[in-house]
Queue: 3 jobs
Job 1
Amino acid sequence: MHVATLWVVLIPFAAGLISWLAPRDSRSLPRAAALLGSLVSAVLVGAMYLGYDRAAGGSQFAFSRPWFTVGDALADMPLTVTFGFGVDGLSLPLLALTAVVGFTAVWASKGIRNRTNEYYGWLMILLAGLYGVFASTDLFLLFFFLELILIPMYFLIGIWGGAERTKAAAKFLIYRGLSSIGIVVAFFGLAYLAGKIGGDMTLDVAALTRQLHGGAAAAQSAPVAGALFLLLLAAILVEEALVPFHTWLPFAHAQAPAPVNMILGGVVVKTGAYLFLRVAAGMMPAMVGRYAVLVAVIGVLNILWAGLIAFVQSDWRRLLAYTTISHMGIFLLAAASMTPAGLQGALFVAVSSGLLTALLFAGVGLIGERAGTVDMAGLGGLSKPMPYVSGLLLAGALGSLGLPGMGQFVGEVLSFSGSFSVFPRLSAFGIAGILLAAVYLLRAMQRTTFGPTPATKEHLRDGTVGEVLPMVLLLIAVIGVGVFPAVIGHTAGAALAALAAGIGG
Amino acid sequence: MTTVLQGIAFADAWRVMAPEMVLTAAGFLLMLIDAALPPAAKRAGVSTGVALIALLVAGVLALRRFGQTAALGPGSYLLDDYALVFKLLFMGITLLILLLSLDDHGRAEGARGEYTYLLLFATVGAMVMASSADLVTLFVGLEILSVSSYVLVGLRRSSKSAEGAMKYLVIGAIASACVLFGMSYIYGVTGTTHLAEAGYTLFQAWDSYRGIVVLGLLLMLAGFSVKISVVPFHMWAPDAYEGAPTPITAFLAAASKAAGFAMLVRVFLYAFASHFPEWGGLWVGLAAVTMVAGNLLAIVQRNVKRMLAYSSIGQAGYLLVPFAVLTGAYHGGNLYQDMSALYFYLAAYALMTAGAFAVLTVVAKHARSEDVDAFTGLFRRSPLLAGAMAVFLVAMAGMPLTSGFAGKFFIALGAINTGYYWLAGLMFLTSVMAFAYYFGLVRRMYLQEPYGPAESWRTPAAAALVVVVALVGTIGLGVAPGVMMHSLPGLNWFGQ
């Protein structure tokens, strides 16, 4: 029994409750509680990251208690739902991503001035939910947290968003809510499938993975397995905002406040990637194999489609939404290959894309605060009045298009080396999409930061040290991942190799 | 019948139906008090106090009977755990409704003594329905509940109230007639009103008298469907809900519906179980239609009471699922598990419904309106009411940390266990459809500023108590569903 993982979830939760109890519209106490809560949980995640025994592998720092039991879930087999947390090679990188993006997003929330106690309260509940998704070792608990995320996101977009905030919040809720249906039916279906083969009902991730692999032939060939996989895949496509289920993301990004965008694009969208690795690849490798081409085609389609659509966007936030979508396309293409390199690349892309998206949204948020707009048509020549912010934004854009030395580069190289070995032709199309990203991102930077500075923008103040700190931290993180890829590679290596071998995470 | 009744000793009757006897006695006592007391004293809540004490005594008596089985007559009136859990639920709901009504009395026109004893009689009717294993006692219970409810709905002296009561009376009477007509066919074929005996006979009679049996079955099914407001037998509900005093609306939505389920399951399980596979799919279809239609129709409502009425129709669809999959499945259903899931969700649903209507009572009193606009910017006026209402709505939508999430999980497990994947999927799909109106109200409360000056609204103590109890129950059952779910399947459900 190890309570560290439990605390990672509970601390932000507690910070959120403290923030709520603070007097209405008071600013210092909620902010202090949120900063402290996100920092302490981040430090805990860091400590677990360093303390994780790579040689031993598997789920560590595990905390598991029976939560409740359903007496006769399948025929007369009981199902015990556990309150189980733990970390392994797959979840640690995503937990670390949540920690970094969460802390920086709280830090970047200084500009929120109304209903601050509620704001920080919801932000911390959101963070707790995200930690919970990545740290759960029970599918029921995982789904629980996945649903929990909807509520704080709804309020964060709906109260502190732009002009069309309520519509954007509702759209977010409906899309993600619909994806939950696919997820929950797939989860329960898997449990029943495993129960019928393994003779024991469980929703515990490790036990379920073992059962589904133990009776491999029976489980994987059952006709219902294919249906469950497709259902889960559809849900993941919504979660990751992939074409054709993507429209909620650009809309939500265009309305949400900047710090919320950092978490939305940086982490919330990545839950789909985690589900793909954990459940689809981990429990149904044969199904991923059967539908590999379909998944890869969807991936490439997204890279290309998002690349083309991004060209016509003049709102930075919508542009970044499509950047995220194209990154997730790379993720799918790489993960579909089910090769060690491809899976490593996929995980790298998920993490570095999260960091870069958060970095870019932080920069765009600052620009929006100063210039009053994030529309490229109204911007230009910002490098003169705002050199630091422009520089950091450029760094983020370069990282996002795959500049060597940053995480995304490593991710893309690994991804394509994995996918080329399985889908050479499709991957060639994917590479073309990457080139598109280079062009539209640089064009956007050029329209925003270079050229003559309009008279109205000449006197904009640059970001203060406190304001650019989140961007700096995120940049350090993404360069760190790029220069020392072993940080992720070693931790996740064993788990990903097991996935590739089709024997589960 | 008369000979049977004469043969029952008081001690036996007390053993089986002590709670009913206490409540009935309290009801008659209240009638006397109401006639004797001067009008000023009636407002002091004497009658409510007596009723509350009676409910507590009856509750304790019921609790002491768990695990025992006994019967009155030749098994016409049963004491088993199935009846007891339902009785406790009815009494709990009535307790909350009485507390909630305390504030309502202050502004009510005219004497309200009848309000309290009618509520007690209605509760007794519901309890009789839960215990009856004979068509005659069953019908008596149904009528006690129904007739009391008709009057209660019409108590508010407004045209809306009269319209609601009239509609409820007419449709309710037709439903009762249907039930009775159906019962007469079953009696005609089997020669007995006793459910279990009828079940044995029907097992053989099914082949030779199929047409008549099916006709009787369908008539009873239609009548029961009215009582639990299943689509397409739901038409009365929105009007009756809207017209009734708000606490009575809560009673109809929670207790009446639960009583309908208690009766329905007992009758169909005892009398028609042998041929479930041949007609049980009907309930599956009704459940599906009810979920979809109830939630769709709720979206367009502007009156919060009507919205909650349609929402409760949708919830009836979810509640029907455990029984439907039991009857619809050719194999693999698990009776006790499904009963537990049904009861868990009923209790959870009763708590959220009571809580939501309690909030509505307070809001409507301050805003003098039951329109959705009354809730606009509620978080500024009363953080407690807004927060509690948000939790109840989110629970009805089946979100985590609430009992609604756990309850839907149990029901879905039962559906998947019997192979009804699509029904489980439909449950979650309609829940997402329901986001539209549940979160629409949340949006009004939190995402919009109130119209006009945001003076804070005081919540009367009794209503606040109801809200807090419902809140604690809703969150408690969501965080620790095991509290209830671990003991339910182990109950001595039907006394075997």
Job 2
Amino acid sequence: MKLNINLQELLGAIDVPADWVGMREVYEAHTPRMIRDGVPVANGRYATHGVMVEVLVDGQFGYYGTPNMTNEGIADAAVRAYRQAKMASKYSVFSFDLKARPPFKGEYHSPYSKDRESLSAGSLNQLLLSAYNNLKVSDKIVSASSLCQIIETSSRFISSNGSDINQEFLMLEFDLSATAADGSNQQTRTFGGMRGTCRQMGVEFFDKYEILSNANRIGEQALELLTAVECPSGEMDVVIAPDQMMLQIHESIGHALEVDRILGDERNYAGWSFVKLDDFGKLKYGSDLMNITFDPTLESEFASYAFDDGGLKASKEYLIKEGTLLRGLGGQESQIRSGLDGVANFRSSGWNRAPIDRMANINLEPGMSSFDDLIGSVENGIYMESNKSWSIDDYRNKFQFGCEYGRLIENGRLTQVVKNPNYRGISIPFWNSLKGVGNADTFGIYGTPNCGKGEPNQVIRVGHASPACLFGNIQVFGGV
Amino acid sequence: MEMIFNSLSEALFSCIDDHEHLVISFDGENSQFIRFNNASIRQTGLVDDAAIELKYIANGRTCNGAFTVSGNQSVDLERGKSEIARMRLEAKEIPEDPFLVLPQNSGSSHEIKSVNGLPFKDAVDALIPVMQGMDFVGIWVNGKMFRGNANSLGQKHWFETESHCLDYSLVTPSHQMVKGCYAGNNWNQNEYEKYVENSKNKLAIMERKPVKIDTGEYKTWFEAAAVADFLGMFSWNGISEASLRQGCSGFGRMRHEDVRLSPKFSIAEDFSPGFCPKFNSEGEVSQDSLLLIKKGELENTLVSSRSAKEYNLNSNYAESGEYLRSPKMASGSLNHDNVLKQLDKGLYLSNIHYLNWSDNPGGRITGLTRYACFWVEQGEIVAPIETMRFDDSFYRFFGDQLVEVEDKLTVIPETSTYGKRSLGATTCPGILVNSFALTL
């Protein structure tokens, strides 16, 4: 049940001598449903609703997140935020002015054709149960699950200098998972890696035929992996599917380009970055085939929007063009602090956290090669799909990824399935080894609901779209 | 907060019919956050937050609902009634759950920790002066936390505490870092200043030029903070009974192949220090201590009541996610003063970073060195090392490669603030390992 409040009236109830006051109201409801091993394990609806009052005093922002959305509650929140900012202002990292919150007005409504209530809880449970039955292709499948989560978010931002922004989102996360096991030999196959399938759309997503056929394929592939040989070790070419490319982009490009990291805000938690402020416009990040965009406009991608949480209007921008680093992921505050061009990426996880620089949709633009071209150009290599393990250092240099499903590439052809395909590398040499970028036919749109960063910690939704890509001479290895 | 919880839960229980059950969980906080960069304030604010989660059971079906507690009783009651009405309808159309667990009334509890914390208004002036002159970066978190649970059979638990935590890094001009975490309940200004000064003293050795280490296997000392990170992996596809049954636990070799860790390795879930409530989100109360691995042998896994019903076992009242809430690893006999001498030549790792399973069935974990990590020769610290990736199995470093365990235990507080501030801590010693694999 969403409480209707008049945000403008609440703004009028605030009486503090601040240079600027903003209010961001966020309502978000998650509706998870899950069938595991034939029985329902999740049917819920989790809602959160509150307001973040933010004030600017003597160059320092202060905030107060409150669920008390009465005139008295908001007025008190503003007074406390004011005191907090005033107290901190003598030690500010940077003295901001009104340029940090430019006024914009506008709306965004994520695209969908069928809302949550178009599919009943009972029907959705039945569909997930049918998917489970198709995942369970053998007694060797010791556990299988089908799950979805529908997310409805409303965000309204107004300010004393005239911002008035309303954004409404309907989003979906979906996954199928089958685990085959024989003693301690265990293999899990999912639908695009853990929660990799996440989009802005409605329940029109639930195409029964497609879900059931994918469930069957995933169950069969889990079984296939159980008896597959280990991925070989050595340096070789690797063709990476979009559902793994998304995490490669996320970890070794997205986080590295966050300007607040480069400015050192994150050094105690997520880390720093190998990218320096003077690298923009100069650093050869990858091969000439590499074109990376910040694209909040791609329809149905998970983190599309029209304005960030500081109220800045969002647009598509090239971060890396033909391999050269052009622009960082810095919102208005970071742009002012660094003097660099940035993007509208000042985002928060909800009403109880202040915005920081985040990824949104960070995509690798399609190239010219067909999938057959990519595979056909490899004499000895591995094709990898779907992330299952990820790790990277605090400067975003040394990464290691594991995938669910691999196939050998021998003399330009995909041959036998291999299990536990892993690879590791260092970001800049890796991206400079990019020697083939798939065309639009190989392009996949994915994302993750679980990007963690910030102090206090925030988990946020990001989108990543990519074609399949070919990298040369990568360090590849298998399991124990 | 307790009054709000009590009145709201009583009102919602009165909406339940005889054939229905309702379990109510509550969590809340009044928090102050101050974020530092370069000993200055980057962001600061306050958050009041509280949420009620309802678990509704009727006719063999379970539904959940949650809403934010505004503090306005009529608004909150309306939200709660609306959720019950929604769940009542939904329970008529979803499939039956054969493994649902009905609530019980096994007794109530009430625990409020009175502390002498640092008032919000004093935080900036108390914290910043000792940081001056250093590149200090981190987060100050302070304030009250609340947890409650009640069910329609009359059981009620309440836990309330107040704590502070300054989680920080000191950074040298050459970008080497020392980690600190000053946490507790009662504020002591002198003790705080001494703690930060002690961190500052550790920076001296970080000024030495870092050495580059080749990949390969090294004798390695892990400080308690690094060991705590390894133990944290047990909560993710590890010690959970459901994970074992569902084929996604790294403990499979212990269960299926009778593989044992070192006799020097023991770990228990131990609630006796009171870092977090003993009751879980179902309102079930765990025993004070549950031995999980005894001298290398898997004695118990974490079993929730749902897993107990599904797999015909006895519950030890783990949380539904079957993760560790208050783990305590047993100490050994190695005195910290003798660590460098025992290590002689190898790696001294104070902290590790970004762990993940690289081969879960094989128990293999990958991650990175971070913060004060050193190369040691002839029992002396030579210099910090450049960041290295490791990839090795806990069946080795807690198993046949475990040489010795420290004789002292360190409490590593849970500092996560995802969604809300976390409770809990890991208590563990450092360990000396004969061979540990660096891979990149």
Job 3
Amino acid sequence: MAPETTLASSGLSVCHHPMLPRPFRVVRHRRELRDTFTLILEPQDGPPEFPFLPGQFNMLYHPGAGEVPISISGDPGRPRHLVHTIRAVGNVTRLLQRYQAGDVLGVRGPFGAPWPVAEAVDRDVLIVVGGLGLAPLRPVIYHVLRHRQDYGNVEIIYGARSPRDLLFRRELEQWRGRFDLRVHVTVDSAGPEWRGGVGVVTNLIGRARFDPPQTTALVCGPGVMMRFSVQELRRLGVQPRDIYVSMERNMQCGIGLCGHCQLGPFFVCKDGPVFSFDRISPWFELREV
Amino acid sequence: MSNLHMGDEVVLTAADLATLYDILMQQGFQAVGPTIQDGGLVLDVLGGPADLPQGWTSEAEAGSFRLAPRTDAAFFGYNLGMESWKKFFYPPRLALLQVQSRDDGGLHFQACSQEALPLALIGVRACELAALAVQDRIFLEGPYQDPVYAERRRAHFIIAVNCTEADAACFCASLGTGPGVTAGFDLALTEIINDREHLFLVTVGSSQGAAVMANLPHRPAWEELRQQARDLVRQAARSQSRALSTADLPRLLYDNYSHPQWDDVGARCLNCGNCALVCPTCFCHRLEDAIDLEGREAERWRLWDVCHTLQFSYIHGGCIRVSPKSRYRQWLTHKLAAWIDQFGTLGCVGCGRCLVWCPVAIDLTAEIPAIRGQQVKM
């Protein structure tokens, strides 16, 4: 390697080096969908708890291949288990898919701005998600259910490509069985055995029960789905400052220094990934920005 | 020897430069500065003042750079080469951490040691000091510090040089970042060559600088020489033909993402990324892994990156900035608009490197007026 650096022990304070991962051991690998899986992790050593806010993400590291930003999909009230739900779409995520109980990977985080669970107190909460977008919002659902009396109506609108692409299906059914929460599910296409709705999530927004000026809407999913959902929410009278979206960019450092995740004036990793719509709107619909 | 303070001005002869160099060596500094290698002006380790490009000048224009001999023996009679000082604090290639597999199947992560000698930077121009101040904001003043940058920036000695001539590419005067230095140095030199004498008017910029000067045979400055130094710097400012007006930035750029000038410049831009690599404030980088053949040890490296590649904005499923124009637009909009939101300062210091080292001579001091001249709202 280059002579300018040596690999001897460092004088730097390890715990303050923001680029240094911590080793985490896989407790369980759970297959979710044909290309999607959940890793339940605990620290190999060091503090046993991993506190995070709903919506924050970690950089997951496979040594020799690299890091990927993955949002935390677990329960913020149970910080002993770090939970990530991952779709195998690239080099690193396909390697992570092979991880089984006992395997160790690197974790840096938590990073990023959270979903506004504090700002939404005493308001109706409308969660509009598409595809894997349910994963970064699951911590919000856990949080809201744990503090159910703090919130008004809670409505979850979830769309997936097909019935077999429905993530967390068992939990969706449990939530749907509750009296203090309403779950609306739709798929883009389905066979005759599907008894639920078919169509885009935006069609379901109007069916949810919420008082638009008193509603905080959390939107996460593919770009097109978010665009049309925001339009529909605004048409129904939800204020732009009360609509939150989650943006996606190439991220390599997670701490606003590598520059890859820029979107207009923002570093998505540090200023986002969750943005209120009034803040992001000038850049939300621009292409190639 | 007189007791010197910040702001004091004294005079050294050209021959004293060697003594100044020796004192810095004795204090444990490694001297780096401009030197000629392979016909180009680079920044590297200096074995002494003799390694400086004495008697040479630079001729930098959009898309061209030449070194040419001078008629005098000036040590600092040129302006800027391709490289900026950021490479010493924010290295182009850096091993960040090492990973080892443990026998129990676990992993061990360790930050790489970043030992480096404290540097004496010799010949830093005003725009370069401004650029270092910009990088300080990025790497030291955000929510996360870069520990490597912080460590390297902790101890060093800066000998700044006031520019007494400007290159055709320079536009620091319009940004207020030069050609004279104002802060951020230990000693600042103004090189003055008369018929009879070759002198340096030295301004003391820190107590560290004062302590070094106390060990040198110096004379107090006289008013005529001071005036001459001021005139030279003023002349260097007046001679700049390029300028960047910043009054309406960043609004101008945020409001003009779809301006036809982006198509125009996008058709010329080769997306080579030279402008970002030579820019003294650009900070984007990527991370890469190196692994041994057995897969037991890996290293994580940090490398300078440029926003002009498709790879830069790649996420699963494709790239965000597909068209060449969108990638140039990102570079310029970041530098002149987003930078202000992110770091409270412009990302440009007027050094002109981006236009000099652009193979097709794209000149931001021409692109901005072109956008301003015919504004089209989004």
